[in-house]
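Notes continue from the previous slide.

Worked example: a multi-chain complex. Inputs as given:
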Amino acid sequence: MHLTLKVWRQDGPGSSGQMVTYQLDGVSPDMSFLEMLDMLNEQLTTSGEEPVAFEHDCREGICGSCGLMIDGQAHGPQLGTATCQLHMRKFRDGDVIEIEPWRASAFPVLRDLVVDRSAFDRIIEAGGYISAPTGSAPDANLILIPKDVADTVFDAAACIGCGACVAACPNSAAQLFTAAKLAHLNLLPQGQPERWRRTEAMVETMEDFFGSCTNHGECEKACPKSISIDFIALLNRDYLKSKRINRRLAAQT
Ligand code: SF4
Ligand code: FES
């Protein structure tokens, strides 16, 4: 395949960037999108140019680091698929492909296609954990969890923290990410002791960095793990309850 690539190039956080056009020949339909970018970088390095900076780690759809806007779609044209698992067979010979970093003020561009997603880390630091001492590994099934609860929790825990939901949202809201992280702790017995403190802290930290959710639903479509927007309803319910319960607990101390 022959491709024309229009790639966002930016030297650093303070620099202005621009789209730069490259021609790439000999792309195999069996290559992943990141392998195609590797090929571009080999071509650039051989001709003495700076390679395109892009983030990746597992290349298996697990780590969440590889997000790119491809032709204006977060993670490209294949639903439920991270950029690293997108294959070039989804494109045609002669295509022009635009490749950009996530566009959201909470995710500033560090270089080329790499953005700083540490605003997500601030949300997790605010409460995305349980602080109960765990000791040694307990026996399996010591705490019984109904199958439907376990299934829902697994669905939420599939979130890989990629940021596509934010990039796809017209408001740059992070509700889907925060809702997934809250649900996988708030629905389990181990997550109950800190449920209300966690919910209030994570939602309010999220609001410090990201826009508000107005139910566009673009996040669910862009999510490579198909996290359901229903988790946002759970976040909203738990947040309302947390305001009441945390106030009552504060009054008792
Ligand atoms: S909810 Fe989906 S799109 Fe958002 S960070 Fe998690 S995996 Fe990525
Ligand atoms: S490189 Fe890890 S999810 Fe894509």
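Summary box: The longest strand covers residues 3-9. Residues 159-165, 176-177, 180, 222-225, 227 surround iron/sulfur cluster (ligand 1) (CB under 6 Å).
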